[in-house]
From TrEMBL:
TM helices/strands, residue ranges: none
Pfam families for this protein: Cellulase
Top-rank lineage group of the source organism: Bacteria
The protein, known as: Glycoside hydrolase family 5 domain-containing protein
Boundaries of every Glycoside hydrolase family domain copy: 59-297
Biological process terms in GO annotation: polysaccharide catabolic process
C-alpha cells in the first residue's frame, strides 16, 4: 500500500532524525575494538581475579555485563628480567570467551626489578615497561582487548611518591609506541585519571598522546548524582577536539566509577538506583564503555566504605546458585541490560525541567522510555506519545502497572528510581518529540541595575530561542525577554537585563528558555535572593583544619580585588593561602554566627578566582547539630564569577540526627571554606564578596 502523505512525512522525519542523531553525536566507531556508543554492548564491571570461583563467571554473565576491567600486573608477569609469563591471563581470557565477555586490561603497576617506588621514574624502567607492554599486546592480539596505560597516575596512591605528569607521559609514550610496533591493530587507551582531572589530561594531550591513543579513559567518581558528569564530559570532549589529530575520532571511556553502599547517606537501595542512572547517563553521553566499580564487595566491615562498592555481597557460597548474594545494584544491572538489549539510545526528550530525564531507546520493533528525576520529590510529567499501552518495570525488574497514552500524550509519575516503559512498534509522537537541549542557566545576583543570565550550551548544535524572566518580584526589568542565538561552538553566553531601578535587599525571579517553536527547553522556578549584611565579613577569623602535621599559612583581610566588582558596594575579603603537601583546608568562621532564617535551598558568593584548582565550600549546622557542607565549582578561572552552593541531600553532611534531612533553623559554622583537593603544595590568592542566601 502506498503510504498517505502524512505517514510518508512521518517515516521520512524518523529517518532524518536517526541520521541527525548519528551525525551530530559522531558515534561512528573510531576503533574496531570499541563498541558503539548508545548501546549496552559497552557495559561492564571491575574484577580482581584471574581464576574465578566455580559459578562466579556464570553469575557475572547472567547479570548482563559485556566487559570486565582487570589489572594486568607487570610485577606478576615479569619476575625475571626479560622473561614474561602470561599464563594466568591466558586462563582468564579463556573463561571470558566462554561467556562472551570482553576485557579491558590495565597495564600496571611498577616492578621492583626496575623501580623503587610505585611509579616508573627512570629511563631503564620506562624501556622495560614498554617492552613488557608490547609483548603483552602481541601475545593477546586479535582478542579485542583494550590496553590501558596505568591506573589513576594523577594521585599518589598509584604513582608514588607523588604524581608527576612528565614521568607518566614519558612512560605512556614509550609503551604506546611499543604496542603500536608489536601489535599495530590493538587499541590503546589512557590515562585512567581519578576523577575527570582536566589539568592532568591536558598534560597528556600536550605530550602528544592522542596521536597514539584510541580513547581517553577517566574515573568520574563523585558523591553527587551521576548526571552531574555531563558537564565535565562536555569540557573534556571540547579539550579532546582541540588536540585530536585531523580525522581521528577519540571517545571518552568511563573506565571505573561506583558508589559505596557504606558511604554516609548511601545504602544498598540507593546504590542500585545510582548504577542504573550512571549507566543511563553514560549511554546518553556518547560513552562507549562504562565500567562499574565493583563486581563484588571486597570485605565485610560495615563501617569501611571501600568494602562495599560491589554489585554483589562479599561472601561466596560454593554449594549454592547464585554463588553470591545479589545486591540491588546487581538486579539493576540485570534489568537494564536485559531490557535494553537490542535497543539504541535515540534522544533525550524535552520536558522543560533540567531535573527530569526522559530517554528514548529504539529498536526495529519497539520503543523504550526510561524515566527518572534528580529532584527529591516524585511528580508527574507529560510527554507526547501516540495512543498506545506501555509495559512498565522498575529499575530492579519488578513489574509496574501498565501505563497508557491517550490524546497524544502520556502522563506518568517519576521519582529518583528509573523506570522502563516499553511499547511495540513505532510511535509517531514519541519519535517526533522534541529533543532536549542540554542547556544550563544561572541567574546571577543584580549588580547595580543589571541582572545577568549565564547560559551554557553543552550540545554540539546551534540554538535559537528566547530567554524569559518569570515570576519576578522586587525588581523591574525594562523588558522580560530577549532572543538567544548560540553557535554550536559557543559554550557560554551572558544575557543582560537592564533594570529601571535598583532592586530591594531581597528579590525573587525565575527563568525559562524556549526554542523557536515555543517548546520549553529549560525552566528554573523562581528563587528568592537575600543579600547578607556587609558586616558579616568584618567579624570572621581563620581556622586551620585537616591534618595538623601538614604545614600551611592562611590570612584574611578586607581589601580591594585586582578588578572591581562592577557597580557593587559590597565589601571584599582577600584570602591568601599556602597549602603544604597533604590534607589541609581552611575555614572562615564568624565570631558570632547568626541564625539563618527560613528554609534555604542554597547559598551564593562572588569569587575572584586564581585558577589554582582549589575547591570552595561552606558549612552550616541544623537544629540537630547535623553539619551540612555544600560545595561550589572548582576554582579553575581567573577574575570575578558568581558561584552557587546548593543545599540538598547530595550535600556532604554528618553528625546530629544523621537522617539525611535538613532540620531548620540553620546557623553558620563556616561562612566560607577553601579545600585543596590535590593535596599537593598550592598557594594563591582569591577574593570573596556579597554572600547570598537562596530560597
Amino acid at each position: 500500500m502506498k503510504p498517505s502523505p502524512r505517514i510518508g512525512f512521518y517515516l521520512a522525519a524518523v529517518f532524518l532524525m536517526s541520521c541527525f542523531v548519528g551525525q551530530k553525536t559522531g558515534w561512528a566507531q573510531p576503533h574496531r575494538s570499541l563498541p558503539l556508543a548508545g548501546r549496552i554492548d559497552g557495559l561492564g564491571v571491575n574484577i580482581h581475579f584471574t581464576d574465578p570461583q566455580p559459578g562466579e563467571m556464570q553469575m557475572l554473565a547472567a547479570g548482563g555485563v559485556r566487559w570486565v576491567r582487570m589489572d594486568f600486573g607487570w610485577s606478576a608477569t615479569e619476575r625475571v628480567r626479560g622473561e614474561y609469563d602470561f599464563s594466568a591471563y591466558d586462563r582468564l581470557i579463556a573463561e571470558l570467551q566462554k561467556h562472551h565477555l570482553r576485557c579491558l586490561f590495565i597495564l600496571d603497576y611498577s616492578n621492583p626489578l626496575y623501580e623503587a617506588d610505585r611509579s616508573v621514574a627512570t629511563e631503564a624502567g620506562r624501556q622495560a615497561y614498554a617492552r613488557w607492554a608490547g609483548a603483552a599486546a602481541k601475545h593477546f592480539q586479535g582478542r579485542g582487548i583494550l590496553w590501558e596505560i596505568w591506573n589513576e597516575p594523577n594521585i599518589s596512591g598509584f604513582w608514588s611518591p607523588t604524581p608527576d605528569i612528565e614521568q607518566y607521559t614519558a612512560m605512556a609514550l614509550a609503551a604506546s609506541r611499543a604496542i603500536h610496533h608489536a601489535a599495530p591493530d590493538e587499541a590503546i587507551i589512557g590515562p585512567a585519571t581519578s576523577t575527570i582531572d582536566i589539568a592532568f589530561l591536558k598534560g597528556c594531550f600536550d605530550a602528544g598522546l592522542l596521536e597514539l591513543w584510541d580513547a581517553v579513559s577517566v574515573h568520574p567518581y563523585r558523591r553527587s548524582g551521576p548526571e552531574t558528569a555531563a558537564l565535565e564530559y562536555h569540557k573534556l570532549r571540547q579539550l579532546i577536539k582541540q588536540y585530536a589529530p585531523n580525522g581521528k575520532e577519540i571517545p571518552i571511556v568511563s573506565g571505573e566509577w561506583g558508589y559505596s553502599s557504606a558511604w554516609n547517606g548511601f545504602d544498598t537501595k540507593s546504590q542500585g538506583k545510582l548504577l542504573s542512572r550512571q549507566w543511563l547517563t553514560n549511554l546518553s553521553n556518547q560513552i562507549p564503555v562504562s565500567i562499574w566499580y565493583d563486581w563484588h564487595d571486597d570485605g565485610r566491615d560495615e563501617h569501611e566504605p571501600e568494602h562495599h562498592f560491589g554489585s554483589v555481597a562479599h561472601e561466596y557460597h560454593e554449594t549454592r546458585n547464585p554463588v553470591y548474594d545479589p545486591k540491588p545494584a546487581y538486579l539493576a544491572a540485570k534489568t537494564l541490560t536485559s531490557t535494553l538489549d537490542g535497543f539504541r539510545f535515540t534522544k533525550r526528550i524535552a520536558t522543560g525541567n533540567p531535573d527530569d530525564y526522559a530517554l528514548l531507546f529504539t529498536s526495529d520493533t519497539q520503543r523504550c522510555l526510561v524515566l527518572w528525576t534528580v529532584s527529591a520529590d516524585a511528580h508527574e510529567i507529560v510527554l507526547p506519545a501516540s495512543t498506545c499501552t506501555f509495559d512498565a518495570k522498575s529499575h530492579t525488574g519488578e513489574r509496574l502497572e501498565i501505563v497508557s497514552a491517550h490524546s497524544n500524550s502520556l502522563t506518568v509519575t517519576i521519582s529518583d528510581s528509573p523506570q522502563f516503559l516499553i511499547t511495540s512498534g513505532p510511535n509517531e509522537k514519541l519519535d517526533l518529540a522534541p529533543n532536549a537541549r542540554d542547556l544550563r542557566a544561572t541567574v546571577t545576583p543584580v549588580l547595580g541595575k543589571v541582572l545577568s543570565v549565564q547560559v551554557a550550551n553543552l550540545s554540539d548544535a546551534d540554538f535559537q530561542g528566547t530567554v524569559r524572566l518569570v515570576d519576578a518580584e522586587g525588581i523591574e526589568p525594562n523588558r522580560y525577554e530577549q532572543t538567544l542565538d548560540m553557535a554550536a561552538d559557543e559554550t557560554e553566553r551572558a544575557i543582560r537585563f537592564e533594570l529601571r531601578t535598583n532592586p530591594t535587599q531581597q528579590y525573587r525571579v525565575g527563568l525559562r528558555i524556549e526554542d523557536q517553536t515555543g517548546q520549553v527547553m529549560f525552566h528554573m522556578p523562581a528563587r528568592r535572593f537575600v543579600f547578607l549584611a556587609n558586616r558579616l565579613l568584618d567579624n570572621c577569623h581563620v581556622v586551620k583544619d585537616g591534618d595538623p602535621n601538614v604545614p600551611s599559612d592562611f590570612t584574611i583581610e578586607i581589601a580591594a580585588a585586582p578588578q572591581t566588582l562592577s557597580k557593587s558596594d559590597a565589601k571584599v575579603m582577600k584570602i591568601k593561602y599556602d597549602f603544604g603537601d597533604g590534607w589541609k583546608f581552611m575555614r572562615v568562621v564568624p565570631r558570632n554566627p547568626p541564625e539563618i532564617e527560613g528554609k534555604p535551598t542554597g547559598f551564593g558568593f562572588w569569587i575572584y578566582g586564581d585558577s589554582q584548582g582549589t575547591s570552595p565550600r561552606l558549612r552550616v549546622r541544623d537544629s540537630t547539630n547535623q553539619t551540612w557542607q555544600p560545595s561550589g565549582h572548582e576554582i579553575d578561572w581567573t577574575g570575578w564569577r558568581y558561584i552557587e552552593f546548593p543545599l540538598n541531600r547530595d550535600s556532604g553532611h554528618w553528625g546530629g540526627a544523621e537522617d539525611h534531612r535538613v532540620h531548620e533553623p540553620l546557623v553558620w559554622d563556616s561562612l566560607f571554606l577553601l579545600d585543596n583537593p590535590t593535596r599537593k603544595p598550592n598557594r594563591g590568592t582569591i577574593f570573596i564578596a556579597s554572600p547570598i542566601v537562596l530560597y
